[in-house]
Structure formats: structure tokens, C-alpha cells
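Q: Trace C-alpha cell order:
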Amino acid sequence: MALGGNPIFNGKNFREATQAPPVPQAYGQNPYGQNPYGQNQYGQAPVMDAPRGWGSQQPNMTDDQLQQMYNRPAAGPVETGRMSYDDVIVRTAACLGVLVAGAAVTLFLSMSLAGLLMIVGALGGFVLAMVNTFKKQPSPALILAYAGLEGLFLGGLTRILDALYPGVGLQAVIGTLSVFAVTLLLFRSGKVRATPKAMRFFMIAMIGYAVFALVNMAMVWTGAVQSPFGLSTSFEIFGIPLGVFIGILAIGLAAFSLIMDFTSIEAGVRAGAPERFAWTAAFGLTVTLVWLYVEIIRLLSILRGEE
């Protein structure tokens, strides 16, 4: 099983939930449930069961009753308290609904206040992301609070960039939904999987991207570059801004991260993870979708800035 690079799915809690516990056996017990050579423990002669009807009564069932018992459906995830795909879908929809509601708040505020909420949402979302990632048991309230704060962040960011490049927000939403849909279809068809080889390439690319992002952020904060996108627009390769290549790489990494998220969710459902971990799965998907949206709207803004 290839658990994703997403630390939420790769953490100890979710990993343990996707592993079925071994069946305990008593000391000296035969794994097949019987003692060898027809003897019980310590070499004693086997104890014969009492014949039916001696000291106990066996219930008599008609043929119709036996047939009804046979026709009963097997217990599903709902009856057994296990995570199902429906649980993940419902909780992910709840997270995205809260996120959209948070983003919608910024549409009715002034530009300066929307920018302030963007900063509050970014910082608060980061703190809650860390709390939810390392929390032993998923907390629906904290996960939904994270979604709301990320909604403020994305709403403020979209409001600012859309004022500079009209229509870029709608394009980013369509792009995010398109990448998500295509990625899900490719995963469901089995054409794209998180193989160990692909995971190695992903980790190498992620390390390189993280180093670039940190250097780029430091240069923007220190004023070494004047562009709000940092090195992304300050350097060009064959007349194309560096940010275009970096943006395409980042979107590809986010899309493959979705593949790994789907792999982890599939493993959790098959292993019969407790139902509460559906919130963990929804949280992980929300984090990846937020990252994907940010990368898409940044790439679109860079392209629009070159027009």
C-alpha cells in the first residue's frame, strides 16, 4: 500500500487505522483451532461433547426461517461502524461547503478588510492544519474550522488577484474542478497509480519545489526582488517566465498528491478503518485541493500578467 506524501494520510494515526490487527492466539494454541492428533492440551484424551438434547434444548427452525437467515444481506460499513466511500464523500462535501461559505464572506467586504481576513485565514488555517495533522483522533469541529479559515484565505486571495486580472478567480475554480475530476477518473480506471517508482520521483520533485518556494519567499520578504511572485517572474527561460514552469510542476505535484490521497482512502476502506477517520480523509483531500487551487490561480495570474 502506498500511503501518500500528504502528511495527514502518512501519519501514524491514519496508518495504524488502515492496518488490520492480528488475531490473538493463546500460548500453545494450534493456529487451525484444533489440537493435534485429536488430543486436547497436556496429552489428555479429548472430551466428547454431550449428545444434543442432554441437558439443553436446541431451537427448531423451519425451512423458511433458515432460508430467510440465508437471504439476509451481510452487515455493511454502517452496521459495523467502518469507514465507507460515502462517509468520505459526505464529509468532504461538508468541508468544501464551509470553505466556500468562508470565501463568500470576503465578497461583501472592502478590499482592505478582505486582505486582512486573507492573512488571518492563512495563519489560522496553518495552525489548525498542524493541530489536526498531529491530533490522535479526528475532531470534526477543528476540521470544519480549518475549512472556514482556508475559505477566508482563498476568498481574500481571489478577491485581490481578480481585481488585477478580471476573471482569474472563476478560471481557477474551473481549473481546480477539472484537474480533480480528471485525476479521479484516471485513478478509478486504474491507469494512474501511486507506484513506488512514482513515489520516489514525487518526493524528489517535492523537495526541489519546497527549496525553491522557501528561497523565493525569503527573497520577496527581504525585498531582493520586486515582483510579488518573486523569482517566478523575474527570470525567463526562452522568453517564458520561470513561474510558468514552476507552476506547471506544482500543479502536477498537487494532482499526483490527489492520486496518493485516493490510494490512502481506498486502503482505509478496504482495511475497515473506523468511521471517524472519514473526517481525516476529508481533511486530507481539502488540504490538497486548497494547494491545487492556489497553484492554479498563481499560474493563471502569471500568464495574465504577461499579456
User: Anything to note?
Assistant: The CA atoms of residues 17 and 273 lie 5 Å apart. The first strand starts at residue 236 and ends at 237.
